[in-house]
Design goal:
Blueprint lengths: L9 H59 L6 H27 L4 H28 L4
């Protein structure tokens, strides 16, 4: 099992958010046309805002958890399981704030946000599990 001590290179903790960013950009590229085609400009705006909210929630909470639990041996378990409820609460708090401050169709925004959120959480869990299973070189 890989060590997650504070002597570990800081680049390894930055690799996952970069990978999630590329996954998010690819998902946005794949869904931009269908969002515009079926929802018009408002559907595209909801898709982009939902993607940004889910990405911001995942990456910000990953960095916060990596700072808080940097010496934990089971870092992957802490991030995936421990951060799930915190992330959902933060995500729906942001959705509530946006619903009160911006004139946007909340139904589309919630669907896009939850969809992108699930894609990113799945990619994060898969990546952390793969890193945990790799033998140390």
């Amino acid at each position: 099992m890989r060590s997650t001590s504070c002597t570990e290179k800081s680049g390894s903790r930055v690799r996952l958010p970069l990978r999630l960013t590329w996954i998010q950009l690819a998902a946005c590229a794949l869904t931009a046309y269908p969002a515009f085609r079926f929802g018009g400009l408002e559907g595209l705006q909801s898709m982009l805002l939902g993607a940004a909210l889910s990405w911001l929630t995942i990456v910000a909470s990953y960095f916060a958890l990596s700072l808080a639990f940097r010496n934990t041996q089971q870092f992957a378990v802490v991030v995936v399981l421990g951060g799930f409820l915190v992330r959902l609460a933060a995500l729906f708090g942001l959705l509530r704030l946006i619903s009160k401050t911006m004139p946007i169709d909340l139904e589309h925004l919630v669907l896009w946000t939850v969809g992108f959120y699930l894609v990113l959480v799945t990619a994060e869990a898969y990546t952390l599990a793969a890193e945990t299973r790799q033998p140390e070189a």
